[in-house]
Design brief:
The protein has helices spanning 41-49, 55-61, 67-79, 100-103, 116-120, 122-131, 147-155, 176-186, 237-245, 280-284, 349-355, 359-376, and strands at 10-12, 17-21, 26-30, 35-39, 84-86, 109-113, 136-140, 164-170, 190-196, 202-207, 212-216, 253-256, 261-263, 273-274, 333-334, 339-340. By secondary structure, the protein is an alpha/beta fold. A nine-stranded mixed beta sheet has the order 10-11-9-8-7-6-12-13-14. A three-stranded antiparallel beta sheet has the order 2-3-4. Strands 1-5 form a two-stranded antiparallel ribbon. The structure holds iron/sulfur cluster. Iron/sulfur cluster (SF4) is lined by residues 302-303, 306, 308-309, 312, 327-328, 331, 333, 335.
Length: 378
């Protein structure tokens, strides 16, 4: 068996391993593994600028001043399966990441609130959402003692084309555990059940192998948005594609409330139509329904300098300022110092910017580099 000489190696970065440059550090998104790794910005630059050179050639570009560090970098990348070494140059590069699959969906995900009007029109809603390409659903129950209704609702989605269903429901007693099990049994595509108003906060697996889980939260999420249900970042191909091309929360989403109203966001009062009067296709044909398509993460202040921007859900309704492109208000991360509010040494973005008056010029180069990578789709 031949042993690869790391110095004479070329390296291959798989097309689903995405380099993301932040202001103070970078990450590699491993889309196929739903995982990510931190890398220093210096390594991002090497991977970005010298994809066709051997490690020895890369060392030479830096006058062999950083040879040990460069070698350590690459050994660590290979160990973490971020790059793969090759002892020959190849013109057969990994295929570029295909973004068409999620881009051709008109609606990618929807929230349906369980209520009389949505129950009466459920068959029609399922057909319409399927025709629009919707694959991911969240079912929301805000009423009390709705377990039997929820069960019937879930059964209606058997034999449909939806790929995943989440359910959010209010806790109403200890016998809830047996109902959680019956929910999972009634619908094979049910992945996450969020129980709010619970007597504890916990994350539990119903089926660890299939990543089916139920999350208990003491919070009362009524009138909060679905972000309250989320636990951490989302790393997936569709999240990445949505984040670079439109608003990753609202871009291709619709919500049908229990009154039959169609909205974009649970926090918004804006109603685009009524499912008992118009078809979903008619309702979403209004121009302002699509106004969030322009708000990609690369346009949002602060986020555009953050390494987490293609895995972090964006909120346009709760922003730090009136400016439509300002940072989401719930964020406690400062990407300029790579620290969360809970960490020692954290200061706010405003304070950091005031203390570093030349910061904006330093971001121009980074943003240009990001734009070039996205334009080349590599
Ligand atoms: S909301 Fe915060 S963590 Fe998320 S991308 Fe923006 S700055 Fe980063």
């Amino acid at each position: 068996m031949s042993v690869i000489d790391i110095n004479q190696s070329y390296f291959i970065l798989p097309s689903t391993n995405i380099l993301v440059r932040g202001y103070s550090r970078s990450i590699v998104l491993l889309l196929s593994e739903s995982n990510y790794h931190y890398i220093p910005n210096a390594l991002y630059e090497i991977l970005n600028l010298h994809p066709d050179r051997t490690i020895a050639e890369i060392k030479l570009i830096y006058d062999n001043k950083f040879s040990n560090i460069i070698e350590e970098y690459f050994i660590s990348l290979v160990k973490r399966r971020i790059v793969f070494p090759l002892n020959f140059s190849t013109e057969h590069k990994p295929q570029k990441f295909i973004i068409g699959h999620t881009c051709d969906k008109i609606i990618d995900n929807a929230i349906i609130e369980i209520g009389e009007k949505t129950i009466t029109n459920l068959k029609y809603l399922i057909n319409e959402l399927s025709e629009l390409g919707c694959e991911h659903l969240m079912l929301l129950s805000k009423g009390k003692n709705e377990k039997n209704k929820i069960y019937d609702f879930l059964v209606s989605f058997n034999n449909t084309a939806f790929r995943s269903i989440d359910l959010a429901v209010s806790w109403d007693g200890t016998e809830m555990n047996s109902f959680i099990e019956s929910f999972f049994l009634s619908q094979i595509r049910l992945f996450r059940v969020f129980i709010y108003n619970a007597n504890e906060n916990s994350v539990n697996f119903y089926d660890k192998f299939r990543l089916k889980q139920y999350i208990l939260s003491k919070d009362n999420i009524l009138n909060k948005c679905e972000l309250s249900f989320q636990t951490g970042f989302v790393i997936s191909k569709s999240m990445y594609v949505d984040s670079i091309s439109n608003n990753n929360c609202l871009g291709k989403k619709l919500i049908v409330t229990k009154d039959g109203n169609v909205k974009k966001c649970l926090l918004s009062n804006e109603v685009f139509g009524d499912i008992t009067k118009n078809t979903l296709s008619q309702i979403i044909s209004k121009e302002n329904f699509w106004c969030y398509m322009n708000y990609s993460k690369d346009e949002i202040d602060v986020c555009k300098d953050c390494e987490f921007r293609y895995m972090c859900i964006d909120c346009r309704f709760r922003r730090t300022t009136q400016d439509n492109f300002s940072q989401p208000v719930f964020c406690t991360y400062n990407p300029y110092i790579a620290k969360w509010q809970s960490e020692d040494g954290w200061i706010s973005v405003e304070q950091w910017r005031a203390e570093n008056p030349g910061w904006e010029e330093q971001t121009i180069e980074i943003r240009d580099m990001n734009k070039k990578r996205l334009a080349n789709n590599d």
